[in-house]
Specification:
- With about 270 residues, this protein is of the alpha/beta class.
- The chain has a single domain, classed as TIM Barrel, CATH 3.20.20.
- The protein has nine helices and eight strands.
- An eight-stranded parallel β-barrel has the order 1-2-3-4-5-6-7-8, surrounded by six helices.
- The model has no long low-confidence stretch (mean pLDDT about 95).
Length: about 270
């Protein structure tokens, strides 16, 4: 499967196969529930399904490799057999990525792209898979403990430049890479807002940018909204991101996000 960017904005639906997701709370933890949810998201307009079996919420305890494999492989295998939507594996583990790609996934969503070792990148290179390079400061269990930057936008920009070079040396071509600023991953409310305001600046790399803000806790810090009350703010961020040139929106709420994105695109098309 090959996608040529720029193109219309892609909506990525979240399929959490975990018992402790901050939003869906394990509602789709069984393979049958996760597969049904993924198919529903595809029917609502998701062009990517991002399947994850290891929670990356702040404070999360990592799943073992065996636990993660047992959670995601039945779901990916079933989804690959029942839909033509691109499947992404949300993992930081090389063995999980390799098995998921063999089972039908075509992209690796890596929240630990700050790593120094190349094992996961080699898996991506060998498979010719897509790769989401996400910026994070720290690891999920501790990442929200006093994150600090001198200039968060400049530091994320420098991170992308460095990782594109390292990925190339590991055999991952720039054409395989999507960039994600990592909203909520080792960032304060101010850092998240600064990155949202600067999204257009990351177009300089010539790679698609992915934004994941769906119902995240920075919305509560700003507006006092609980997870089930954060959809309006999530949609506002998605629409602003489309205007800034973001090409992929990762969300729990596919149908609503597709509407917001298509309306934004329709208006923007009349400005040209």
């Amino acid at each position: 499967m090959e996608w040529i960017f720029p193109r219309r904005t892609v909506v990525m639906g979240i399929v959490n196969v975990t018992p402790d997701s901050f939003y869906d709370g394990g509602r789709f933890f069984t393979p049958a529930a996760a597969v049904a949810h993924g198919l529903q998201l595809a029917a609502e307009g998701a062009e990517i399904l991002d399947v994850g079996g290891d929670s990356s919420r702040p404070g999360a305890v990592p799943a073992t490799e065996a636990e993660e494999l047992a959670r995601v492989l039945p779901v990916i295998t079933a989804l690959a057999a029942q839909t033509r939507v691109l499947i992404s594996i949300d993992t930081t583990k090389p063995a999980v990525a390799r098995a998921a790609l063999a089972a039908g996934a075509a992209m690796v969503n890596d929240v630990a792209a700050f790593r120094e070792e190349e094992a996961l990148w080699r898996v991506v290179a060998e498979a010719g898979a897509g790769y989401v390079c996400m910026h994070a400061q720290g690891r999920p269990r501790t990442m929200q403990t006093a994150p600090h930057y001198e200039n968060v936008v400049a530091e994320v920009d420098a991170f992308f430049a460095d990782r594109l070079e390292r990925l190339s040396r590991a055999g991952v071509a720039a054409e395989q890479v999507v960039l994600d600023v990592g909203i909520g991953f080792g960032k304060t409310l101010a850092h998240n807002l600064q990155l949202l305001a600067a999204l257009a600046e990351f177009a300089r790399f010539g790679r698609p940018v992915l934004l994941g803000v769906s119902r995240k806790s920075f919305i509560q810090k700003l507006l006092g909204a609980e997870p089930n009350e954060r959809l309006p703010a999530s949609l506002a961020c998605a629409s602003m991101a489309v205007e800034a040139g973001v090409q992929i929106i990762r969300t729990h709420d596919v149908a609503a996000t597709v509407q917001a994105v298509r309306m934004t695109e329709a208006v923007l098309a009349l400005r040209k």
